[in-house]
């Protein structure tokens, strides 16, 4: 059986898809899987490192504000559609699974024309633009938050929705707290604060962390993913502050070791922290991230500093309050864990297998009938 995956633009559209692929391959290594993404996009770099076949297409982005780039990108989207059509026509997968992002839309449209069944998955609290453009053509729409269905008014979409949760790679679930703390702490009784700004880093978060350093106590140790702007923060490195551009194999142990995590509010990251039962301070971007964060804030599962409140004074106050209150940290960690479904990777792999099995049986029955 052959399955095509598509999605990209950010790690939140890529890593959950890889988690599903891991679960599929753990069930049956005979699956023929490939990924459709943007030529020279982030997904190409990440997917090729996994040794999965990568099929590149041209991609454009539809912005929800006036921009001349919308005109040029429209031609890229059209070209991307024909790229995707050619790939899918040649490969003829039994199913297309879309993780969203602007690059996924041409593949979904091409798959629909070729009568290839389409599954889409939404990581955020509300359907993103790419998934709204894809939803009419999807056979099933999987969501990460149960309340997402309340945001969808079209009956034809609602009847296709299934609550699955957001997939997380198995490797991240296997983090070793002892190894992580031994790597980063000089003393076991120190408090480890992990700072993550998403796959591109986040200058606003980076600056808040650097601004906090003058009042940092000796028992507070920061391990900070700075992203693309790493060189600007390397000069602040000291015994209690460790800036690093990116984390790789050590990330699972680091998340397990952290007492507090400061992060953006991407749905994939939230799910990872929930499964690992972490106490989290979210600094969301406007849009989907703020919607993700607000839902968790309303459930008293996290601390949230919204964009208009993200100044140094507020950040220092909230971080100090959480650092001084271990019982509150435990409450946040437990509440967040209980809100998030933690078996989405295997759930979605099973849904794919059921679809492939059913379509295979229908195809066989048709062959028998036609004889």
From TrEMBL:
InterPro entries named among the record's database cross-references: GlcNAc_MurG, Glyco_trans_28_C, GlycoTrans_28_N
Membrane topology designation: Peripheral membrane protein
A single BP term in Gene Ontology: cell wall organization
Pfam family, one: Glyco_tran_28_C
MF term (GO), any: undecaprenyldiphospho-muramoylpentapeptide beta-N-acetylglucosaminyltransferase activity
Compartment(s) where it occurs, according to its Swiss-Prot or TrEMBL record: Cell membrane
EC number per UniProt: 2.4.1.227
Domain Glycosyltransferase family 28 N-terminal intervals: 3-143
Residues involved in UDP-N-acetyl-alpha-D-glucosamine binding: 10-12, 169, 199, 289
One cellular-component annotation, GO: plasma membrane
Start and end residues of each Glycosyl transferase family 28 C-terminal domain: 193-330
Substrates-to-products reaction catalysed: di-trans,octa-cis-undecaprenyl diphospho-N-acetyl-alpha-D-muramoyl-L-alanyl-D-glutamyl-meso-2,6-diaminopimeloyl-D-alanyl-D-alanine + UDP-N-acetyl-alpha-D-glucosamine = di-trans,octa-cis-undecaprenyl diphospho-[N-acetyl-alpha-D-glucosaminyl-(1->4)]-N-acetyl-alpha-D-muramoyl-L-alanyl-D-glutamyl-meso-2,6-diaminopimeloyl-D-alanyl-D-alanine + UDP + H(+)
Pathway assigned in UniProt: Cell wall biogenesis; peptidoglycan biosynthesis
Keywords recorded for this protein, A-Z: Cell cycle, Cell division, Cell membrane, Cell shape, Cell wall biogenesis/degradation, Glycosyltransferase, Membrane, Peptidoglycan synthesis, Transferase
NCBIfam families the record matches: murG
Classification via PANTHER family: UDP-N-ACETYLGLUCOSAMINE--N-ACETYLMURAMYL-(PENTAPEPTIDE) PYROPHOSPHORYL-UNDECAPRENOL N-ACETYLGLUCOSAMINE TRANSFERASE, UDP-N-ACETYLGLUCOSAMINE--N-ACETYLMURAMYL-(PENTAPEPTIDE) PYROPHOSPHORYL-UNDECAPRENOL N-ACETYLGLUCOSAMINE TRANSFERASE 1
Family in the record: Belongs to the glycosyltransferase 28 family. MurG subfamily.
Task of the protein: Cell wall formation. Catalyzes the transfer of a GlcNAc subunit on undecaprenyl-pyrophosphoryl-MurNAc-pentapeptide (lipid intermediate I) to form undecaprenyl-pyrophosphoryl-MurNAc-(pentapeptide)GlcNAc (lipid intermediate II).
Name recorded for this polypeptide: UDP-N-acetylglucosamine--N-acetylmuramyl-(pentapeptide) pyrophosphoryl-undecaprenol N-acetylglucosamine transferase
Lineage: Bacteria, Pseudomonadati, Spirochaetota, Spirochaetia, Spirochaetales
């Amino acid at each position: 059986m052959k399955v095509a995956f598509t999605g990209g633009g950010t790690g939140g559209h890529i890593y959950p898809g890889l988690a599903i692929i891991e679960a599929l391959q753990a069930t049956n290594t005979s699956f023929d899987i490939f990924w459709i993404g943007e030529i020279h996009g982030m997904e190409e770099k990440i997917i090729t490192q996994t040794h999965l076949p990568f099929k590149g297409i041209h991609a454009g982005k539809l912005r929800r504000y006036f921009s001349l780039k919308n005109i040029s990108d429209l031609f890229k989207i059209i070209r991307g559609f024909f790229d995707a059509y050619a790939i899918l026509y040649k490969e003829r997968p039994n199913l297309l699974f879309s993780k969203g992002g602007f690059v996924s839309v041409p593949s979904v449209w091409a798959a629909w024309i070729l009568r290839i069944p389409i599954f889409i998955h939404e990581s955020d609290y509300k359907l993103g633009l790419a998934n709204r453009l894809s939803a009419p053509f999807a056979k099933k729409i999987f969501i990460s938050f149960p309340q997402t269905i309340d945001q969808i008014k079209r009956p034809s979409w609602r009847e296709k929705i299934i609550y699955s949760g957001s997939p997380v790679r198995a490797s991240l679930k296997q983090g070793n707290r002892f190894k992580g703390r031994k790597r980063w702490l000089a003393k076991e009784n120190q408090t480890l604060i992990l700072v993550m700004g998403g796959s591109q880093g986040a200058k606003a978060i980076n600056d808040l962390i650097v601004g906090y350093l003058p009042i940092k106590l000796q028992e507070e140790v920061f391990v900070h993913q700075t992203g693309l702007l790493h060189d600007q923060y390397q000069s602040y490195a000291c015994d209690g502050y460790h800036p690093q551009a990116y984390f790789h194999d050590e990330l699972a142990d680091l998340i397990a070791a952290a007492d507090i995590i400061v992060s953006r509010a991407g749905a994939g990251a939230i799910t990872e922290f929930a499964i690992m039962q972490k106490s989290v301070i979210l600094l969301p971007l406007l849009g989907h991230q703020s919607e993700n964060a607000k839902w968790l804030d309303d459930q008293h599962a996290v601390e949230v500093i919204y964009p208009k409140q993200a100044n140094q004074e507020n950040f220092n106050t909230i971080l100090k309050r959480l650092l001084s209150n271990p019982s509150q940290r435990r409450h946040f960690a437990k509440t967040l864990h209980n809100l998030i479904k933690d078996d989405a990777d295997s759930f979605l792999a099973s849904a794919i297998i059921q679809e492939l099995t059913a379509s295979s049986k229908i195809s066989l029955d048709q062959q028998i009938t036609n004889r």
